[in-house]
Amino acid sequence: MCSFSLVLFLLAFSAPLVSSANSPNIILFVIDDLGWNDTSYQGSDIQTPNIDKLAEEGIRLKQYYVQPLCSPSRSALLAGKYPYHLGLAHGVITNGHPYGLGLNETTIADHLKKGGYSTHAVGKWDLGMHKWEYTPTYRGFDTFYGYYDADEDYYTHKVGGYLDFRNNTDPVKDEDGTYSTFLFTKAIEDAINAKSDSPFFIYGAYQSVHSPLEAPDTYLEKCHSPYPNRKIFCGMMLALDEGISNITSLLQTKGLLDDTIIILTTDNGGQTALGSSNWPLRGNKATVFEGGVRGISFVWSTKLRKSNYDNNAMMHITD
């Protein structure tokens, strides 16, 4: 099964509209633990105007399904196979686990790199770290800026007492105290600014909005939920929404927006015990109820732009 069938469809659709020497750029945002009711275009109390604008101008995938946990979903997304066929359906890969996405698997980045794309991974990996061969720069990505594990502190970038933050394979030791959403937005902007004659593929796997619940005070001041966890979660969403706005604004400024496809997906349902909401779906992350496996996703491109268009065809993250 081809891991980038959706991308192929979009490329085929847009091919007559762009020069053959300039294939569309692709940005694939993966938002960690984003619940069904966590964006305002889905009816949330949290205002996400920049994500909303992309969703309202694009194609919203309303019958779109993911896996109930992050490593299974990410393996399905990057390799294009159900995680049961990848040996990764059972849980989350964390430090000390001696396995990962099989080295015989071809990733989206491998495919696109062969097609002339520059490829960049930013944010969370969570597909193996016990050997270098399992890490992003050995799996088709030219560059990587992020962390290998499943979660960590947003400011110290540590998990279990150790630093897990990399620029390619080198540890990043000088960003203690800087909020990761800011760092990952800047890394995506840097990849855009570095564009040469080749189109780019950016895998923007934000840490947000996974636990731990942490957000800068400037965003918390704009959140008024009476529930403490929801208030912090709101601040995390506002920072994320602003980051996506900064990225789309940069694309516009550089004249790249019309030649860029933007896809956004969650990796699983929201964790309701930690501020997320899947209302009105039953269940949450780590369950196979709708709240755990029915995901938010949309595709945006000026070549596909529609107004408030919902696609109700059944679709899975392997697609």
From TrEMBL:
Q: Which cofactor does it need?
A: Ca(2+)
Q: Which species is this UniProt entry from? A: Amphimedon queenslandica (Sponge)
Signal peptide annotation: 1-20
Q: Which Pfam families match?
A: Sulfatase (PF00884)
List each copy of the Sulfatase N-terminal domain by range.
24-313
Cite the entry's keywords alphabetically. Calcium, Glycoprotein, Hydrolase, Metal-binding, Signal
In terms of SUPFAM superfamilies, this protein maps to: Alkaline phosphatase-like
Q: What is this protein called?
A: Sulfatase N-terminal domain-containing protein
Any one Gene Ontology MF annotation carried by this entry is: sulfuric ester hydrolase activity
Q: Which domain of life is it from?
A: Eukaryota
Query: Is this entry keyworded DNA damage?
Result: no
Family per similarity comment: Belongs to the sulfatase family.
